[in-house]
Design goal:
The chain has about 525 residues and is an alpha/beta fold. The structure holds ligand TNX. The site of ligand TNX has 10 residues, from loops.
């Protein structure tokens, strides 16, 4: 048992040491220097130091605590060089992961909440389910020095300030979307992004699997969708697609990081890749060429043709069977080549197909201008929150995911000098991205209609993981905080200091990020 210096707690409540002060390397990180900000922090005197014999103890017999423990060990072993054995033997010191069933005496932590208690003897993470343990582990990780993220042995010490964090999310939906259609990203690139999303307690990965420029998922009953429709991308590169096994691998990896995959097939617009693959899907029976530009709004499935609904049924059936999560996103944005009447008729026919295969409909908010099915979820991507049909649908029970483009779109340029991205919704610097309230954003929508937030990343201009990361960091953690932390914790001045402390962690992880001048990054 190793007890650390007893001075840490005061720094948890007082002003934190500036990141570049001489103490910063050894004083443990204050418990509230975390992104997303925890719901409640109670500092105490002392600290716990992870030492060469620290065990990771699990309780609960269903294996899910052990999976999180194994994950934690994998995170901590390279930089500490310690064995960190995972054991079911109870009692004693160490890092303890505990699942406590719901019921009398159990802490009120919700499905994703956790409690993290640090004393001189032990670190204890308590949760009702593995998601809570996993999120608690992410908090623990941020409380260790940034060098914990390196892949070679570092010197430590690995001290964590004493006290208690009790934490649970404000919103159930904390999403990130990756557009794998405009440019294709392979399984390993998606896994890398999943690992980054998990750091900030994001719990939904929305994959934009089809668009004009590419169809990215194998559908056995319509094989040319992937084989032909997936054969290129913006700029004319080779594109690509996920086999069903690839997709399962992504889904399983996401689940191991407590993320649910939400697949999107965008319809009835944004469908050139499908129309190019099957002539019969076109009203004139002629397949257009593949498309590698970046215009939007020129393509539409043929709404009056019956074969369109055979196609939709087959695609949704196969995709639903591959997807364990409850959601299926059917797009519905920018259908500029579909008449309003056809759009409504199409959505009236397609939403029941999603229900038939056991899934909940998610659609871009244009769906609220049609007849959103009972239980459907609308994803808002406007820029001022004043669309009456969105508020009306929310009042009638449609739940909302907020992705306002001038706040949450990770593909918007930070400023005029940003080499990547677009600017149709304006420039979106770190503060602009963070400083809004999802609970009041849509005028006249009840706060209870807000299911959460999502940060979409469109990839017309993005081709590599480094590109993804440059656009996502530092904005993604800010959107994650809007989704997780209580409204009372929302504060740019506090956030900019906490997110600054993430910079050295991203350096240690090899994440390329934008050094926003609005954030006081540590200098050393
Ligand atoms: C609008 S947002 C789109 C996408 C583009 C994006 C670029 C939405 C639902 N549709 O097709 O990729 O802008 O920022």
């Amino acid at each position: 048992m190793v007890a650390g210096a007893g001075t840490a707690a005061s720094s948890a409540s007082a002003a934190p040491a500036s990141p570049s002060s001489p103490d910063a390397a050894t004083a443990p990180t204050p418990l509230d220097r975390v992104v997303p900000a925890p719901a409640s922090v109670r500092p105490a005197a002392g600290s716990y130091a992870i030492h060469p014999d620290t065990p990771i103890r699990v309780s609960g017999s269903d294996g899910s605590a052990r999976r999180v423990a194994d994950y934690l060990a994998t995170v901590l072993r390279p930089a500490t060089g310690y064995r960190l054995p995972v054991t079911a033997r109870a009692g004693g010191d160490g890092i303890r992961l505990r699942l406590t069933p719901k019921g009398a005496g159990a802490p009120k932590l919700g499905a994703e909440g956790y409690r993290l208690e640090v004393t001189g003897r032990a670190i204890t993470v308590t949760a009702r389910a593995s998601a809570g343990l996993f999120h608690g582990v992410q908090t623990l990780r941020q409380l260790l020095p940034a060098s914990i993220e390196r892949t070679t042995r570092q010197t430590g010490p690995w001290r964590i300030a004493a006290g208690t964090i009790t934490d649970e999310p404000r919103y159930a939906w904390r999403g990130a979307m990756l557009d794998v259609s405009r440019h294709f990203f392979g399984v390993d690139q998606v896994k890398r992004y999943i690992d980054q999303l998990a750091l900030y307690k994001i719990n939904r990965l929305h994959l934009h699997l089809s668009d004009d420029q590419g169809w990215r998922i194998a559908i056995d009953s319509w094989p040319r969708l992937a084989a032909h429709g997936g054969s290129t991308q913006v700029g004319g590169g080779p594109g690509g697609y996920y086999t069903k096994d690839d997709y399962r691998e992504i889904v399983n990896y996401a689940a191991s990081r407590e993320l649910t995959v939400v697949p999107e097939i965008d319809m009835p617009g944004h469908t050139n890749a499908a129309l190019a693959s099957y002539a019969e899907l076109n009203c004139d029976g002629v397949a257009p060429p593949l498309y590698t530009g970046t215009e939007v709004g020129f393509s539409s499935l043929c709404v009056p043709k019956d074969v369109t609904y055979d196609f939709v049924d087959d695609v949704i059936r196969e995709l639903a069977a591959l997807t364990p999560g409850p959601y299926l996103h059917i797009g519905g944005d920018e259908a500029h080549s579909t008449s309003h009447e056809d759009y409504v008729a199409f959505m009236d026919r397609v939403q029941p197909v999603v229900a038939k295969y056991g899934k909940t409909v998610v659609g871009w908010h244009q769906l609220t201008g049609a007849h959103p099915a009972k239980g459907a979820i609308a994803q808002y991507w406007g820029t001022d929150g004043r669309e009456k049909e969105v508020a009306d649908a929310a009042k009638a029970g449609t739940q909302l995911i907020l992705s306002p483009a001038n706040r949450a779109y990770l593909d918007m340029k930070y400023d005029a000098n940003t080499p990547l991205g677009q600017n149709w919704a304006g420039y979106v610097e770190a503060k602009q991205s963070y400083d809004w309230d999802p609970g009041t954003y849509i005028k006249d929508a009840p706060a209870s209609s807000v299911l959460g937030v999502e940060a979409p990343l469109w990839t017309e201009t993005l081709e590599t993981s480094a590109h993804i990361e440059y656009m996502a960091f530092p904005r993604l953690p800010g959107i994650a905080e809007l989704g997780w932390s209580p409204a009372s914790a929302h504060d740019w001045e506090s956030y900019r200091v906490r997110v600054a402390a993430q910079g050295p962690r991203w350096d240690a992880m090899g994440i390329t990020y934008y050094h926003s001048p609005q954030i006081p990054w540590p200098t050393s």
